[in-house]
Amino acid sequence: MISEGSIIVAQIPQANGETKARPVLLLRELPGFADFLVCGISTQVRHAIADFDLVIDPSDQDFKMSGLKASSVIRLNFLSTIPQSRMARYLGNISSENLALLQNRLANYIYSSS
């Protein structure tokens, strides 16, 4: 069963307007229609933003249960909302601690004054 903290493959919008099947983290279930706020996952670890994104590599405890095949960055600046109908397959999950860390980082960013 999918839930917050699950990593799945889903069709998500890209910068060019097309959609692409990508791994995403289910960050938060949204009220009303069972849609999820998700963030994209990329193997382009060099794009990770320190103290914002989360890099998971084979040395991390979350790596094995994530279902990811290579070091990856969970990108909080790559957000989308998707319905369950666009979720293709389940890969794995991250720990509740890392999920809370990402949710708090995003909330703190939204609420911080610039």
Description of the molecule:
By secondary structure, the protein is of the alpha+beta class. The protein has a single domain (6-111), classed as SH3 type barrels, CATH 2.30.30. Helices cover 19% and strands 41% of the residues. The radius of gyration is 13 Å and the shape is globular.
What's the arrangement of secondary structure elements?
Elements: E1 6-13, E2 19-29, E3 36-42, E4 54-56, H1 61-66, E5 72-82, E6 87-93, H2 96-111
Characteristic terms for this protein:
alpha+beta, 19% helix, 114 residues, SH3 type barrels, 41% strand, globular, single chain, 6-stranded antiparallel sheet
- Total of helices: 2
Largest sheet: 6 strands, antiparallel
Total DSSP E strands: 6
- Rg is 13 Å
Question: In summary, what is this structure?
Answer:
The chain is of the alpha+beta class.
